[in-house]
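Consider the following assembly input.
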Amino acid sequence: MTTESDTRRTTQKGGPEQEIVFKDSMSVRHALDWIFAILVFIATIIGLVVLAVLLMDIARDGVTRLSWDFLTSFPSVSPENSGIYPALLGSLWLLGLTALFSVPLGVGAAVYLEEYASDTWLTRLIEVNISNLAGVPSIIYGLLGLGIFVNLLGPVTGGQSLISGALTLSLLILPIIIIATREALRTISDSVREGGYALGATRWEVIRSHLLPMALPGALTGTILALSRAIGETAPLIVVGAATYLTFSPSGPQSAYSALPIQIYSWVSQPQPAFQVNAAAGIVVLMLVLLLTNSVAIYLRNRYQRRA
Amino acid sequence: MATNAEQKGRSGDALWRRESRTRHFRERAIKIVLAACAYVSVLTTFGIVFVLIFETIDFFQEVSIIGFLTSTTWSAAFANPQFGIVVLISGTLLTTVIAIAVALPVGLLAAIYLSEYASTRLRRWLKPALEILAGVPTIVYGYFALTFVTPFLQETIFPQLTIFNALSAGLVMGVMIIPTIASVSEDAIYAVPGSLREGAYALGATKREVATRIVVPAALSGIVAATILGISRAVGETMIVAVAAGALAQFDFNPLDPAQTMTAFIVQVASGDTPTGSLTYNTIFAVGTTLFLITLVLNIVSYLFVRRFRETY
């Protein structure tokens, strides 16, 4: 009560017009605030709504087409007999080979930059270079793979082969693995390193026995997320010549190959609606594979975190 | 004490010496191997630049660089081919503008919500949930744009929409870029010191006024960086436009018509059988060089803006 009369007295001193302007504007401002709060909430939710619609749309189109036959058949000119067997196998091959190439390189580079490299212009150049590579469009990596792995090193890699595809994907995801591993190494307290040196361990001994195991959860999560990105990549594989119509399964690293996203792209591009259904079913399989890899990442992270 | 330690040191020394040479050698070898891993990234950049320049020089020996930059016709597959890169750039520009028109307002408002309105617990759930949008393979978005968004728009707003069009591709691409813009802007908005907000509240500002008049202007360089990063993603995005925007290269800014981007052209050529060393083969590298230069400039500008907002606070 006293405060209210107090305010009234002060505002009356300033003139009655000011009091009215102030009051009017307050209700408008509060209304605007309320609208704005709803607006920002909608903006946050809208992406998730689209995601839900997308997942439901694909499930509705594709789930009925899924069968054991679909998983174990080869592509065919008739949509009903087509399957994704060689594409699924190709994707698993790519996953394995890409992990084989990219993980040692990425972790090695991260350890060097975080534990060995001194702060020189050369180190800074490598760092700027890595963050720039993370922003290069994936299709440019495809052109790199086409020029180097498919054509220049064709006699070694076998041209348009699994190796060429996996090497291209490895270079594509290398920056992600390096950045994730560096961040994991950076969170380890220096007392661990100093403790190791105090006991007479060399730099590498400390890295191998303490730093790498401690950085494992973070590095592993980042690596698996990077690999799941590699599984979903389409554009670079088209450029380095993954096949869309393969009647045999890949026999070795130098074999021709297909991959899940490539097979989906080839079906999406067909005008017949039955092939579009195949594409949706292929997408369901691809999304299930991604869900699986991401769950593994989360599971491993939780498990190792608990142990540490 | 001292003698004890000395004795221990001496016996330790003997053990130490016997090993030290191999140990020292191993340490050096490991350091070199690890450094080599780090230099692979530099080699990658060199590889990209080398391949692009090499093939592009081949291309410009057959096609005049002036025609490439000034012609407004792109007909690479025809008997008398015309290479006006402007046409592909216009297609890229059109889809990018549509994507940013979706992603910038939505991403920025989402960033404001996450940083200024959401509780810490909700924020911890919403941020990773939004990130899922960036993890969905782009071929999936392409399918969604072609088989859901286009028919939906045809039935509701634009009956004259063609099956392949820039609008659906751009809209879906915008959704894909939301997390990029939201996440980088949120970092910038979150970094604005609390004292600025408190000062504004003390002067009688409401929460909306603090967010839009104080926090957003203070985080502006970070938001600009986020937007440029989003543009760079949109320019380099391939599968959505290759699937949903069609393969008709024309100099036309009508979003209801088909459009071909630089990336979609590369995919179109690479999907067919193109003999190595042919003019068409070289064309994709010339287009790739243009694309690489554009994204490089965008990434550098974005990097400079990010560094600026980091230096301020």
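Chain A touches chain B through 88 residues (CB under 8 Å). Ask yourself how this observation constrains the way the partners meet.
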